[in-house]
Design brief:
This protein is α/β, with parallel strands linked by helices and 271 residues long. It has ten helices and eleven strands. It starts with 7 loop residues before the first strand and ends with a helix.
């Protein structure tokens, strides 16, 4: 019979690390990220994410026990107990959900992307809102995408708000972040991936088919749009048609619509 695993009081040293993960600098320093909430953590465990620590308030320990019984928690994952007030101080949300996890950041470079990234790759160029980025990553997974590139100036995809926005989907993607724009463009060019730039006033995306072959949808900053380096390298500058009087859609909404449109065209065309 396997010995019962016990929760240990959260050590001061480990607490200091967890507290530091709320900032991008802290995540880069420790090469770790913070994940919050039972649904997101259970999904991450099911996807095989490397979670080093589970930190639970007393009321949430039963949930962690359920994961243990289902053999979702690796033997190397440490189990910690924290009081409600202590956990609230470490959590990123206003109303903590009782359990936190610390995961290991994957490599951030382009070398970690698959040689065949699928029918649609997401190229994010300067999106600042973590919720918008999370939604884009979640949509990418939903349409069958495998990889996303976040250029320099884009919010960290492992920001706690971005992870929540992706509903854990980001952990099933191959991600490269902090990538120079020219390097991202060259990566696409070297693999025969045509860039479709999502721009205000661009050609109606639904008016004609996208370029043949694999595509990368480039989504720019909420206010400034795409950089000249990325937009200038695009095979197609496309926009989402809107009724008169509607100024714009959020990066998350416009990008999600475009991802679905491109995925549909590729499937329909048999590419």
């Amino acid at each position: 019979m396997t010995a019962e695993r016990r929760f240990e009081p959260l050590s001061k040293a480990r607490r200091a690390v967890v507290a530091d993960l709320g900032s991008r600098a802290g995540r880069e320093r420790h090469r770790r990220f913070l994940l919050e909430g039972p649904r997101a953590i259970e999904d991450a465990l099911a996807r095989g994410a490397r979670l080093e620590d589970l930190i639970a308030a007393p009321a949430a320990e039963a949930e962690v026990r359920r994961w243990l019984e289902a053999e979702l928690v690796p033997a190397a994952t440490a189990l910690w107990r924290a009081g409600d007030e202590e956990l609230a101080q470490l959590a990123d949300t206003t109303t903590p959900q009782g359990v936190l996890a610390v995961g290991v950041l994957p490599p951030s470079g382009l070398d970690g992307l698959p040689p065949e990234p699928g029918r649609v790759t997401l190229l994010v160029d300067g999106v600042q809102d973590p919720g918008n980025l999370g939604t884009l990553l979640r949509t990418l997974v939903a349409v069958g995408g495998k990889a996303a590139i976040c250029c320099k100036g884009t919010v960290d995809p492992f920001n706690p708000k971005a992870l929540r926005g992706s509903a854990g989907a980001a952990l099933s993607l191959a991600l490269a972040w902090g990538i120079p724009r020219t390097a991202a463009v060259e990566w696409c060019r070297g693999r025969g991936i045509a860039i479709v730039a999502l721009v205000a006033g661009g050609r109606d995306l639904f008016a004609g088919g996208p370029p043949a072959g694999p595509l990368a949808l480039a989504v720019g900053a909420e206010a400034a749009g795409l950089s000249p380096e990325v937009e200038g390298a695009a095979a197609l500058a496309a926009g989402i048609p809107m009724e008169p009087g509607v100024e714009s859609l959020s990066a998350a909404v416009a990008g999600s619509v475009a991802l679905y449109a491109l995925a549909h065209d590729l499937v329909r065309g048999g590419r």
